[in-house]
Design a protein that fits this description.
This protein is mainly β. The chain has two helices and 18 strands. The radius of gyration is 23 Å and the shape is elongated. The relative contact order is 0.11.
């Protein structure tokens, strides 16, 4: 009797789930379809929010155009919308975990001006050309993709809070600030700076360059590697080490 009762309950539960989720289950077994590209015109924006599994390539340009590449059956739910001056990019397709992405979802952003990026994504973020502005800020809050930035700015703020994203920065910044608390590395020794200030409280390492002044706080197990011959100010409460890179 007990086994029969359990069997009946399981059948009722399964039937209810199938009825409630019938459409979603159908979507789960829909293929991505043939790859296609769609051009979209965006409203004015100066910042970007990245979510989900979409690769984003940024091209500094005056057009403000977006070039979206995805499977035909997925294109309609690749989100590119501007909310309060921020371009939000994401993937609202259901059951992404059961679908093959042999051709990654990708959005090319032809940006007029960007001064900040919020990254909460498993996709890659790549600057295909140098971004020039006064101040640039990136906050990495979660995710695990590769981030490649090309900058020529007066001031840069590179904050890696959570996740395993691999953040690499190239170019020039007069004054650079780094906050590292994540599991991924911050590799910015190809970002030429005069003044560099950072805190590493994460488990991974930071690589930086400075020519005039370097301020370092190490409050975790990750190391800080630096090149150049700056005046160094070190505050150390963690087990990580400050290590000079010699040519």
């Amino acid at each position: 009797m007990t086994k029969l009762l359990i069997y009946c309950c399981v059948c009722l539960l399964a039937g209810g789930l199938l009825t409630a989720c019938g459409k979603d289950l159908g979507d789960c077994f829909t293929s991505a379809g043939p790859q296609e590209t769609e051009f979209r015109q965006a409203e004015a924006f100066n910042s970007i929010l990245l979510t989900d599994n979409v690769d984003v390539e940024v091209i500094p340009s005056g057009s403000g155009m977006l070039e979206v590449t995805a499977g035909k059956n997925l294109m309609g739910k690749i989100v590119t919308k501007v909310v309060n001056g921020r371009l939000e990019i994401g993937n609202e397709n259901d059951c992404n975990w059961v679908r093959s992405y042999s051709h990654p979802l990708k959005v090319k952003v032809y940006a007029k001006q960007i001064d900040s990026i919020e990254y909460r994504s498993s996709g890659n973020l790549t600057f295909l050309d140098t971004l020039r502005c006064d101040t640039f800020l990136i906050n990495v809050y979660e995710g695990g993709g590769n981030i490649r930035l090309l900058l020529h700015v007066e001031r840069s703020l590179l904050n890696s809070h959570l996740g395993t994203a691999d953040l690499r920065v190239y170019g020039f910044s007069q004054v650079n600030y780094i906050y590292q608390a994540s599991f991924g590395p911050v590799i910015a020794d190809s970002l030429v700076t005069n003044f560099n200030y950072l805190e590493n409280k994460g488990t991974n390492n930071c690589f930086v360059q400075a020519s005039i002044a370097l301020g370092v706080t190490i409050s975790g197990p990750g190391n800080v590697y630096y090149s150049g011959n700056p005046d160094v100010n070190l505050v150390k409460t963690g087990s990580g080490q400050l290590i000079k890179i010699t040519p």
